[in-house]
From TrEMBL:
Its cofactor is Mg(2+). It comes from the Bacteria. The keyword Metal-binding applies. It catalyses: L-threonyl-[protein] + FAD = FMN-L-threonyl-[protein] + AMP + H(+). This is FAD:protein FMN transferase. GO terms for molecular function: metal ion binding; transferase activity. It comes from Microbacterium oxydans. It holds the Pfam family ApbE. SUPFAM superfamilies: ApbE-like (SSF143631). It is an enzyme of class 2 (transferase). Keywords: FAD, Flavoprotein, Lipoprotein, Magnesium, Metal-binding, Transferase. Its EC number is 2.7.1.180. The keyword Metal-binding applies.
Length: 265
C-alpha cells in the first residue's frame, strides 16, 4: 500500500491552533490559495466574534454600543442559530444567559465548518481527502471515489496523552467537550452553575456546528440525563463520566455502558 502524501498547514487563530490536512494533493496552486482563503476567513470571523477584543462586534454588543441588527450580518445569522439550538436542547445550550449575547459556545464550530465547506471541500477534485482540526474539533471531507477513512482518536480524559478509543469517519464532524483540557469552564445555562459529573463527551455528526453544540449540551445535562441523545440527531458518540463509566450511542440509541474501573491508573 502506497504511503499517503499528507500536507499539513498550521495557523493560530480564534484562540487555538488550526491545522488543515490535505491527503495526496495534486500540484495545483488552487490548493494553496484555498488554504490561505480559509485561514483568512477564520481570522475575519474572529475579528467580528472574539469576546477578547474590545473592538469586536460581540464586545461592542455586550457593552451596549452596537445592536445585533446593525452589526456584521453574520452576527444575526449566528444569533438566530443559537436561539434555535437553545430551543432544540431544552435550554442546555444558550447564548444569552450571562447578562448579554455571548455565542462563544457556537461560533468556533460554526466558523470552522462554514469556512472549510466554502474553501476546502471544493478541493476534493484535487485531493483524496481534506480535514481541518480546530483545537480537537474536526470537519472532515473525503472524495467520492476515494477509499480514504479518517481514524479519529478520542482522548482519555483520565489519562492525558492516552487514547481511549478510535472512531472512523469518512465525511463528517467530530467535537469534544468537557473539563479535561481547560478545566471546569462549562456553565449550565439553566442554573448558572459550573457543570459537574462529566469528564468528556465526543459527538459525531455531519456538521461541526451541530456536533459542537450537542457536545456542550451533553456536559450541561450531566451523567444522569441522556434524554438529549434522541433529540440531538447525531451519528454516534461517547460520554465518559467522572466516576469512570462510558456511555456510547448510535443515532438515538444508547448501545453500551461499561465501567472504566479497570482502566484506573
Amino acid at each position: 500500500m502506497t504511503t499517503p502524501d499528507i500536507h499539513v498547514h498550521v495557523e493560530h487563530t480564534m484562540g487555538t491552533a488550526i491545522s488543515i490536512h490535505i491527503v495526496d494533493p495534486r500540484d495545483d496552486p488552487a490548493v494553496r490559495d484555498a488554504v490561505r482563503a480559509c485561514v483568512e476567513e477564520l481570522r475575519d470571523i474572529d475579528r467580528v466574534f472574539s469576546p477578547y477584543r474590545a473592538d469586536s462586534d460581540i464586545s461592542r454588543i455586550r457593552a451596549g454600543d452596537l445592536r445585533i441588527r446593525d452589526a456584521d450580518p453574520r452576527v444575526a445569522e449566528v444569533a438566530a442559530a443559537c436561539a434555535d439550538y437553545e430551543h432544540a436542547t431544552g435550554g442546555l445550550f444558550a447564548a444569552s444567559w450571562r447578562g448579554g449575547f455571548d455565542p462563544t459556545g457556537y461560533v468556533k464550530g460554526w466558523a470552522v465548518e462554514h469556512a472549510s465547506r466554502r474553501h476546502l471541500a471544493p478541493l476534493l477534485a484535487s485531493a483524496r481527502a481534506i480535514g481541518i482540526n480546530a483545537g480537537g474539533d474536526l470537519q472532515l471531507f473525503t472524495a467520492q471515489d476515494s477509499d480514504w477513512v479518517w481514524d479519529v482518536g478520542i482522548a482519555d480524559p483520565r489519562r492525558p496523552g492516552s487514547v481511549l478509543a478510535t472512531m472512523q469517519v469518512t465525511n463528517g464532524a467530530v467535537a469534544t467537550s468537557g473539563p479535561a483540557e481547560r478545566g471546569s469552564h462549562i456553565i449550565d445555562p439553566r442554573t448558572g452553575h459550573r457543570t459537574h459529573g462529566i469528564a468528556s463527551v465526543t459527538v459525531v455528526a455531519d456538521s461541526l456546528a451541530h456536533a459542537d453544540v450537542w457536545a456542550t449540551a451533553a456536559v450541561a445535562a450531566g451523567p444522569s440525563d441522556t434524554t438529549w441523545i434522541a433529540a440531538s440527531r447525531t451519528s454516534t458518540g461517547m460520554l465518559v463520566t467522572d466516576n469512570g463509566a462510558i456511555a456510547r450511542w448510535i443515532g438515538s440509541t444508547p448501545v453500551e455502558v461499561t465501567s472504566l474501573s479497570s482502566w484506573a491508573a
